[in-house]
Amino acid sequence: MKKTKTLIRTEEIKKEYVNDEVVTKVLHGVSFEIQKGEFVAIMGPSGSGKSTLMHILGFLDTSSSGKFLFKGHDVSNLDDDQLAQIRNEEVGFVFQSFNLLPKTSVYNNVKLPLFYGKETGHDQKVKNAVKAVGLTHRINNLSNQLSGGEKQRVAIARALVTNPSIIFADEPTGNLDTKSGQAIMEILEDLHDLGHTIILVTHESDTANHAERIILLRDGLIESDRAVDQRRSAKDGELKK
Length: 241
Known about the structure:
By secondary structure, the protein is α/β, with parallel strands linked by helices. 29% of the residues lie in helices and 31% in strands. It has one domain: 3-Layer(aba) Sandwich (Rossmann fold). It contains 7 helices and 12 strands. The strands form 3 sheets. A 6-stranded mixed beta sheet has the order 6-7-8-3-9-10, sandwiched between helices. Helix 4 (122-132) crosses helix 5.
């Protein structure tokens, strides 16, 4: 039997925003677990709360109430500096809009997260991350010299370079054509096969079906949480068991 280790556990997570005494409730009590090494898609229409949930899970925001346990530790009430430290050490982000520094080389874009860490050996880590996404031949190119698909590969390498516990991919194929999108999903599948925990945020069912499991949000609540019976494979465009 495959051993599992709980990486994330949420208990009745709620989130509301207050603006000029107007309270907007976004999450209404969300509970689930994610195991180390899982490939999970968080899916839902606009306004479902999926981006807010990702920001909480990625230590970019905090919940209004409820518990968020990461590696068994309650991180619900940490301050901004503590959240930033965990985020820099444990989380990698891949965004729809790439968020690369313009007129900056692939090498230096990927190296950026390492400036905030304490570890050394940056040069080899950067080269390994760039190699993992198949861009060694572009390592000295500027980001504005790359195609959209290549920019997203750089973003994935930047997310990988700190060897994080979780990689969040927020609509990673949203700005790409079909071929480039398939290539990005193939990289994410390969990273999962290597043992990385991937949390994919998307509103597209075709993209979500690359994951092992789909958590569907609607109106701030979990509508369903199910295993994907027939996963999509970016390598051959077919479904895999």
